[in-house]
Design a protein that fits this description.
The protein has 7 helices and 16 strands. By secondary structure, the protein is an alpha+beta fold. Strands 7, 8, 9, 10, 11, 12, 13, 14 and 15 form a 9-stranded mixed beta sheet that branches. Strands 2-1-6-5-3-4-16 form a 7-stranded antiparallel beta sheet. The protein is globular and about 50 Å long. The structure holds 3-[O-phosphonopyridoxyl]--amino-benzoic acid.
Length: 302
């Protein structure tokens, strides 16, 4: 069992220590590529269809033609999990523009590079309370929707990285970014929700957010539970006077925000709505209909 993890690289499985890309790959030289961060829970890949669709949308928006069908891409993800005998995993699926020359022109890149990494990762979801985090509001603004918008899940994360470093310097866990208009956008790698007087709100696409798959599922969960949820512009005033603020994402799952730039949010702990959604989401991720089974024997017929 001392065997190295196997990484999918351009259709082949190679040992982790041998899984490399060229220094001429435009994913590295220019951040020219797209990716997905995906999670498997107990042998089922959570919302894999949504992730694959978003990957192809990101690729389309940068005119990157992925040389696999969606079905082939789905199978490649599942096969990566099987090869590594994983049931609970974080998966990184990356498609770059491929190898080119030292010029920025993508027209010279003939073959996209595709790699898939799957690592073991246990879920933090369950009966216990969500983690409480300290946030700051970053002085960096989210990239605008008419610029390098985060609606594209591209390899260019400098906007988030600058905000994250600012949070590190301030001794906070992470940063919330405002959009170029001054409205609340999202966390560096999470979408944001707030609760005020029993009403839930989350920024809309106008704020340059990533169309998060966790966000989308939580919005639908709120509706299913009969909770009032709006996708709209949110001001910094609303953020600082909210009863509850929570962050959601594939890797982070659900995090409760205890303070923002040193000011306590609500009780400073986990509010009742956050707690309820956390508990419901913990059950939801394990439902067969929410994911794609990895192992043949576990595929439910019809
Ligand atoms: N917004 C941004 C900017 C993101 O990068 C999310 C929201 C949440 O989306 P999903 O679809 O996962 O619900 C992300 C998530 C990390 C990490 O380390 C996360 C992301 C990208 C890179 C790293 O948690 N994407």
């Amino acid at each position: 069992m001392s065997q190295e993890p196997l990484i999918y690289v351009d259709g082949k499985f190679v040992e982790k220590s041998k899984a490399v890309v060229s220094v001429f790959d435009h994913g590295l030289l220019y951040g020219d590529g797209v990716f997905e961060g995906i999670r498997a829970y107990n042998g089922s890949v959570f919302r894999l269809v949504d992730h694959v669709n978003r990957l192809y949308d990101s690729a389309k928006s940068i005119r990157l033609k992925i040389p696999l069908t969606k079905h082939e891409m789905t199978e490649a993800v599942l096969e990566t999990l099987r090869k590594n005998q994983l049931r609970d995993s974080y998966i990184r699926l990356v498609v770059t523009r491929g190898v080119g020359d030292l010029g920025v022109d993508p027209a010279l890149c003939k073959n996209p590079t595709i790699f898939i990494i799957a690592e073991p990762m246990a879920s933090a979801l369950g009966p216990r309370d969500p983690k409480v985090v300290k946030m700051i509001v970053s002085s960096y603004r989210r990239d605008a929707v008419d610029a390098t918008t985060h609606e594209i899940k591209s390899l260019n994360y400098m906007n988030s990285i600058m905000a994250k470093m600012e949070a590190n310097s301030a001794g906070a866990n992470d940063a919330i970014l405002l959009d170029h208009r001054g409205f609340v956008s999202e966390g560096s790698v999470t979408n944001l929700f707030l609760v005020k007087d029993g009403r839930i709100a989350t920024p809309s696409s106008a704020a340059g957010i990533l169309h998060g798959i966790t966000r989308d599922r939580i919005v639908r969960l709120c509706s299913d539970l009969g909770l009032d949820v709006a996708q709209r512009d949110i001001t910094p005033f609303e953020l600082s006077t909210a009863d509850e603020v929570f962050l959601v994402g594939t890797k982070s799952e659900i995090l409760s925000v205890g303070s923002i730039s040193g000011a306590q949010v609500g009780s400073g702990g986990v509010g009742p709505t956050t707690k309820r959604l956390y508990q419901e989401f913990s059950k939801l991720v394990l439902r067969p209909e929410e994911g794609t089974p990895v192992y043949e024997a576990e595929r439910v017929s019809a």
